[in-house]
Design a protein that fits this description.
Residues 11-153 form the Isochorismatase-like domain. Pfam families: Isochorismatase (PF00857). It comes from Bosea eneae. The chain is built from seven helices and six strands. The longest helix has 18 residues, at 27-44. The chain has helices at 27-44, 55-58, 83-88, 105-115, 132-144, 152-160, 168-172; strands spanning 9-14, 48-53, 71-74, 94-100, 120-128, 148-150. It starts with 8 loop residues before the first strand and ends with a helix. Strand 1 (9-14), helix 1 and strand 2 form a beta-alpha-beta unit. The chain has a single domain (6-172), classed as Isochorismatase-like (Rossmann fold, 3-Layer(aba) Sandwich), CATH 3.40.50.850. It has 176 residues and is of the alpha/beta class.
Length: 176
């Protein structure tokens, strides 16, 4: 089934960390879009998973996203190497991913999830790298390997499916 479904999705927020974000190209916009995803997930009861790469060095998750879920600390770039992460994403839910950096932690995690035959949606307007070229190359590679590249609004409206959804008006405020 090509469409995302809120009832069988999990939002994965990768390494939106305080000391990293000032170096990320277009960081404030990416954090804002990730915030929209978090708010939509809360409205529609979509479970969330948050990771932090080397939190002692890169700091905690940015305040705007910190309350989404307890963070899973990791040292490996690929979050799939952390047993707590694998436990948090257990099952066969679609994984809707946002985070940093597209070509390092985010990219390696996505490729690993695809290797494990998970259905992955990469939210390109909520994914960042320090250098735009790195993000572009990574997104193309992820798509070639089977990730669906989507936008924040695509996620929101596919999760809703209809203007008759009880949370439609509240969700609409997230994109206006």
């Amino acid at each position: 089934m090509p469409l995302m479904n809120a009832k069988r999705s999990r939002l994965v927020i990768i390494d939106f960390q305080a000391r990293l974000m000032p170096a990320i190209h277009d960081g404030p916009r990416l954090v804002a879009n990730a915030g929209r995803l978090v708010a939509a997930a809360q409205l529609l009861e979509v479970p969330m998973v948050v990771t932090e790469q080397n939190p002692a060095g890169l700091g905690p998750t940015v305040p705007e996203l910190a309350e989404a879920a307890p963070a899973i600390a990791k040292m490996s770039f690929d979050a799939c190497a952390a047993p707590a992460f694998i436990e948090a994403i257990a099952g066969d839910d679609d994984l809707v991913l946002c985070g940093c950096e597209a070509h390092v932690c985010f990219g390696q995690t996505t490729l690993s999830l695809l290797e494990h035959k998970r259905r992955v949606f990469v939210v390109q307007d909520a994914v960042g790298s320090r250098v735009p070229e790195s993000k572009g190359v990574s997104l193309r590679r992820l798509a070639r390997n089977g990730a669906e590249v989507v936008t924040t609004e695509m996620v929101l409206f596919e999760w809703l499916r209809t203007a008759e959804h009880p949370q439609f008006r509240a969700a609409l405020k997230l994109v206006k």
